[in-house]
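>> received
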Amino acid sequence: MAQYDEGAVLKIDHGVVATNDLWKSIEFFTEVFGGKLRRLVNVNLRGLDREVPEMAFVKVANHPGWGLAIQPQPIPAPTRPMEGPTWGFEVDERGLEGVCTTLDEKNVAYDGPFDYAAPSPIARTIVVRDPYQWEYELTERRDEDKSDELAFGDLGLRRISHVRLEVTDLAEAEDWYTETLKLLPTDQVPGEAQLTLKTQATGQLFILHEVEEMTQRSWYSFGPHVDIKVPIGDLEAFTSRLTNIERYWSPFPEKIPWHEPNMHTLYFYDPFGNRMQVSEDVPHP
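>> returned
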């Protein structure tokens, strides 16, 4: 059995992204990425009053918990490439040629392909945008952590390959992500003012990019986050390293969490305001 550091991040489980129109985003993820709608959350008075975000969860690229969270304010337009969280999905052995052909048939625009020289763990990528201009990379991996999961949907998406996050201090980010999340060094994805780290079990990538100021798009996030998993029994050890935990019970302890009755998960932030969720690596129901 593989041994991991205590409280180490084993894998990226899913992501949640922002939308101003839940059904428009559901249509994108089902029609373009072949997602399967699984459930709606907070479709109730609290959600309609925007006390909590109305959300949809779809299965995408073999991740059953991919989420879409409606926002109470208009999402600002992006001002730079890869602004805010940018998610990457790994494609199967058919490669990007097959993906591009399918996207052409769907009349879906994309940029690329872009090539990365070895030893970059990402070999090639294209960029697709959803209705709110969040960017998604569909990628070919070349490294030893390349996935062999079954292809999902007609694009052949296997799993989340990586997430790109913005930070304002790369040195501080390296310290925090290696010491708090216990991410590991890996070969670098080329990019200026950028650092690539990987999860301990799956080798999924966190690509950290230094910017002068965090995107305003992240300030309007009401629900979006990166969900990570730690070994069973290690949640307490992981939590002990956190300094910026989001507490749903304060200042109204009589209210239950907005969509998390499970006490074995929590939300927190990195030093730059990127929101995350952590729980133990138990199977999805």
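>> The chain has one domain: 11-280.
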